[in-house]
Amino acid sequence: MKKTKALCMSVFIWGSGQFIVCRQRMKGLLIFGIQVLMICIELFSGYWLEFAEGLIPEFSIRLHGGFFTRGIWGLITLGVKTGGKYGDHSTMLLIKGVISLFVLGIFIAAYIWNVRDAYKAGEQIDKTSVYINSKDYFKQFSSKNFAYIVLLPIGIVFLFIVVMPIVFSVLTAFLNYNRDHLPPGHLLDWVGFSNFRKLFLVPIWSHTFLRVLVWTVIWTLAGTLSTYFFGMLQALILNHPSVHGKSIFRTILILPWAIPQMVSLLVFRNLLNGQFGPLNQVLLKIGIITDNIPFLTNPVIAKISIIIVNLWLGFPVFMVMMLGVLANLDQSLYEAASIDGADSYQSFCKITLPLVLQATSANLIMSMAGNFNAFGAIYFLTQGGPNNADMQFAGSTDILISWIYKLTLNQQMYDIAAVMSVLLFALVGAVSFWNFKRTVSFKEL
After folding, report:
1. pLDDT tens-digit readout, 340-374
2. For the chain, first and last CA: distance in Å?
3. Which residues pair with 190 in a beta bridge?
4. How many domains, in total, are found in the chain?
5. Same domain, 32 and 84
6. Is the dihedral of CA 67, 69, 71, 74 positive or negative?
7. Of 194, 318, 368, 400, which shows the fewest CB atoms inside 10 Å?
8. Range(s) of the domain holding residue 129
9. Are 245 and 391 in a shared domain?
10. From CA 440, how far away is CA 425, in angstroms rounded?
11. Contact, 171 vs 188, CB < 8 A?
12. pLDDT tens-digit series, residues 201-249
């Protein structure tokens, strides 16, 4: 059987089944070249040839291994020696180990494809007794898999630019990577789920995590829904036939979105200053208040201030989006509703709101995920403050992402911050996927 013979040959020497059995010379050489490339990377990045010649009597993977063996060794051990010129740096070993695993994974995928292709090519010959040369094969393959061929380079870049940092963060959650164990002065160790247990079982950590999580959820819902429905309100007003000068009002209302968010947040931070802020000074002069309002220093008022400022910055996005949706609604629906005796409120609840929600639900979910990780809105306005002595390295207005920032940059507790990042990624991803899957946009794919 050609398929069995081609399969057995390609298992050991890549492409040999295609080259010899299936008579696909060019394809066989190309696949064999991939195997040669993998072997050369390992051989010439290490000292295997010198070891084979007897020039290295005491061979160690740590010093003499190649790209793959040394990378996997470093990922498992994270180093065995500190200090000196030839000391190990656990973080670098972890990164190199992840990269070597990714590259090795690409070669393993190529090997699996090679074996499957040899079997299928031999099976095709057994069925039809027709040999397809390499040129015809590549024509058929490119026409059938053109989209995948085009996306392959982007996929490889995505693997190293996006996926690799995520994998590194996940692995960091299982290390004792903190200010007491900082490479290269100290080696890191794998500690399993102890960091997760610390976050959930140690009272000070679990208390802080729960309070920050609850505020994060409140902030996400309030920040998203307030901007969404206020933007809808502004869109409905501007879309009303009795409103004149719509372009002028639209331009004015879109300005908060046009100004860079960081600049606006810093302006609001000065405007809401509890002692010298212009807003307090104006309210005092006109007699509305007798004492300064602690806009950013009182825990409750600071949270309300953040939501209001976010409302000012975020509603223009939804306003512009919904103006487009409202402009394309079928007016015959409203005419039919009017004939049936529906008033304006009923038309809004039964026609406008469902259609707008249907058209903008995906954007609403993305906005919710963005607000869950809205680092700038919190940090540039309050920096997570005011301080709270009952919370571990977190302020009263800190959300999960700003707490992670403080744990990494200020406290150098990378292990706990990595645990938080993993939980944050899982939570946002699961909720977003569940919500997005229920939208009409997803069902139409």
Report:
1. 888 888 988 999 999 999 889 888 888 988 899 89
2. 43
3. 175
4. 2
5. yes
6. negative
7. 194
8. 2-192
9. yes
10. 24
11. no
12. 999 999 999 999 999 999 999 999 999 999 999 999 998 888 888 889 8
